[in-house]
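Need a sequence for this fold. Nothing fancy.
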């Protein structure tokens, strides 16, 4: 079995081909290993940890919301959320026809040490930004962006930084955008032990 950890850059599709009129970069441009598939997705404009495997059972278990595997994101938002907005995110937000699950959300005291995004996000001198750490146990389409927008603080930049709980997690340590590596034996065992 293969288990690949990839730091997906901004603007890369989470698939191996793009049949659009103007093809965009895909996983094939970065990962030369055949027959591995992403576990879940990151949007074109999101960055960070993407796990790929040829283990179909594991892929199903990690992607299925019923198993509630934690995923942690660093989220740069427009303006500074107050306690009311943060508590709404923590307790679940109504988006269209569903309510998100409870999430762990905290305001980061400073900007996290991250590689610059290419291209950089727009910079508006008159509008402050801040960073949140959000841990979700579900992964609906564009969920983080929809959650922060629903409480009035649009997402500017989104990076998935880890998979798993704080004590047992797989993270991006040692990787730069566009780089990948196979999981270590310890990481693979931890991944296979996720319930």
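Here you go.
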């Amino acid at each position: 079995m293969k288990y690949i950890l990839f730091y997906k850059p901004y603007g890369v599709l989470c698939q191996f081909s793009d049949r659009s009129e103007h093809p965009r970069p895909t996983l094939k441009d970065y990962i030369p290993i055949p027959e591995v598939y992403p576990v879940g997705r990151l949007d074109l404009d999101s960055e960070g940890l993407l796990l790929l495997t040829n283990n179909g059972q594991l892929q199903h278990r990690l992607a299925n919301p019923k198993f509630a595997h934690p995923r942690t994101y660093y989220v740069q938002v427009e303006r500074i959320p107050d306690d009311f907005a943060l508590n709404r995110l923590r307790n679940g937000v109504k988006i269209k026809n569903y309510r998100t699950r409870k999430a762990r959300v905290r305001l980061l005291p400073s900007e996290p040490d991250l590689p610059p995004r290419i291209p950089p996000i727009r910079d508006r001198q008159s509008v402050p930004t801040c960073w949140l750490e959000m841990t979700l146990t579900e992964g609906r389409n564009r969920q983080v962006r929809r959650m922060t927008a629903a409480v009035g603080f649009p997402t500017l930049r989104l990076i998935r930084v880890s998979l798993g709980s704080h004590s047992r997690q797989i993270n991006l340590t040692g990787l730069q955008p566009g780089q990948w590596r196979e999981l270590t034996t310890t990481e693979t065992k931890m991944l296979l032990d996720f319930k």
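For context: The chain has a mean pLDDT of 89.
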